């Protein structure tokens, strides 16, 4: 069984090699909903998610469940931290910097007001 078929036919724990081979010949397993889809389609029949991803380095088509490209061994998926920063700073980077700056200025002003109130109450 090829590496791609092994990835596509992720067998349940305890399943034998014969079951994995039969599942691989039946179709492609969806990485999102675990639905077994017939070969030759690009999207899952149940959840409509993509069954394959394209490697950004070599443009090889890989099953979605694979973490590395079977052709060049490049990472296929971004790490959770990269996804988080991409969502946070997507297009509004300037707006977020402005908001953080205004928040810091507001905190400094609030701190100075609290200090002045505390000093005036202490002197009374």
Number of strands: 4
Give the number of domains.
2
Sheet of most strands: 2 strands, antiparallel
Roughly what fraction of the amino acids lie in strands? Answer: 5-15%
Low-confidence stretches: 1-23
Q: What is the typical, i.e. mean, pLDDT?
A: 76
What is the first-to-last residue Cα distance? 85 Å
Please give the radius of gyration in angstroms.
26 Å
Rough shape?
Answer: elongated
Strands of the biggest beta sheet: in what spatial order? 1-2
H/E order of the elements? HHEEEEHH
Quaternary organisation of the protein chains: single chain
Count the DSSP helices.
4
Structural class: mainly alpha
The helicity comes to 40-55%
Question: What does this 3D model show about the protein?
Answer:
- The chain is mainly alpha-helical and 124 residues long.
- 45% of the residues lie in helices and 10% in strands.
- The protein contains 4 helices and 4 strands; from the N terminus they run ααββββαα.
- It has helices spanning 3-8, 17-26, 80-88, 93-123, and strands at 27-29, 36-38, 52-54, 61-63.
- The strands form 2 sheets. The chain has a two-stranded antiparallel sheet.
- The longest helix is centred in the last third of the chain and has 31 residues, at 93-123.
- It is elongated.
